[in-house]
Amino acid sequence: MGAIACMGTAGCLFSERQQNPQFTLRNIRSYITDEGMALVVGVVEKQEGRRGEVTVRAELLIDEAYDHVSTQTFVVPADLTERTIALPFTTSSPFYGDQEFTSRAKIVRHGEPDGQWVAERE
Predict the structure, then answer these.
(1) How much is the pTM?
(2) What are the tens digits of pLDDT across the range 77-87?
(3) Most CB atoms closer than 10 Å: which of 47, 54, 101, 110?
(4) Cα separation values, 91 from 28, 34, 41, 70, Å
């Protein structure tokens, strides 16, 4: 659908937006690439055949606290049903190389409840 314009004494413009497809998140893993960078990697799966955008929030559990956060929006083209994603965590000091951590991630749904946390399996 396109936009519908109506004329009159109080003109109006109505635009119908196509709703974003539904996504699921799975296979969350974390990796240390070097002492200053960690990655949380996972797979987003699109439920419908059109292009969509999905925002994912990932957190690292370090010293019993989820206090390292990365959020990013990814585009999944119409011809793909799933996409591997990676969210970077960076620091200017050699921090990640000395840490043991696990990760979790969820889909952020703007204006709706977020998806469930998907935790890394050891």
Answers:
(1) 0.79
(2) 999 999 999 99
(3) 54
(4) 21, 10, 18, 12
Q: How many CB atoms lie within 10 A of CB 55?
A: 16
Q: Are 42 and 105 in contact (CB under 8 A)?
A: yes
**Eight-state DSSP code of residue 98:** G
Could you report the per-residue pLDDT of 64-79, keeping only the tens digit for each?
888 889 999 999 999 9
Residue with the two structure tokens 């969509």: 52
Which residues have C-beta within 8 Å of that of residue 22, sequence separation ≥ 6?
46, 47, 48
CB contact at 8 A, 116 and 107:
no
